Amino acid sequence: MLYVALSVKIQDMKLQPECTTCIIAQVKTVTKMLHLSQMKTDAALQDTHEYLKTANYEGCTPESMGELWQILLGHIGEDDPYAAIKSLCNQEAMKMVPTTRDKIENAKDPLDISLKYAIAGNLIDYGLEHPVSIEEQNAQIDTIASTAFSIDDSQRLRDVLSKSKTLLYLGDNAGEIVFDKLLMQQISKEFPQIAITFVVKGSAVLNDVTLSDALEVGLDSIARIIDNGDGSPGTVLPRTSESFQSEFAKADVVLSKGQGNFESLSGEPKDNLFFLFTAKCDTVCAEAGVPKLSIVCMENLRNS
Asked: Is the pLDDT of residue 3 over 80?
């Protein structure tokens, strides 16, 4: 089914055949980053190819990646193999806080700048086919945060926030959560009536944020933290817990970070759902109708 906004047609984000190439590349990246033996690497790639033969191509990419991650863990032998990488991303991002906070506080429009930094922080993604170094990502975050939105529904978001009492913030990756915290602090400053709940993954997957990652950067000082009961690199609602689904349904406004959440939630029948992400994937760029590495603040386009 197609639905339209900003003169751009966006389809349901189903797993595309071209996504399989990226998934295989991600598996290779994981095995290289975690220094798996050639025997384990070959076995992981063989299992990946076997999985993709019977994958649910009516589902979204995060759903398949979540299932495949469980297979990969059998070869890796750890529950959270990215733990050290995630902590390093958090620590490096926190080094940017003093200067970033100054830019937000001194800006003509602090909410706009904090939104852009939170979205630019989405660049921190070791699930990418070609992840960049920490030095490169930090330099790019500053550059991207100074650009204009490719899709800008931020005024609509302001209007919704002014009338809301509860905000559900769906986290994405470690590292970028440092900039999420700055955004939530600005929202609390401008809209003090809002109670914020921050959502982490129910179990570790790639470098997606878990409870321990959120606590490391002090997110509990600005928001209540819950998990979604699932280990997919997105928010695949049928796989999440009933308690999370209840929180999602009743929230006045939902901020959904990252491409994985866009792929898994786009078109859901939920009002006041906004997607915040940096466009890094060719398929997502094509679906959203935006250039690569552009920043997006997009209101949900509901299916009917």
From this structure: no
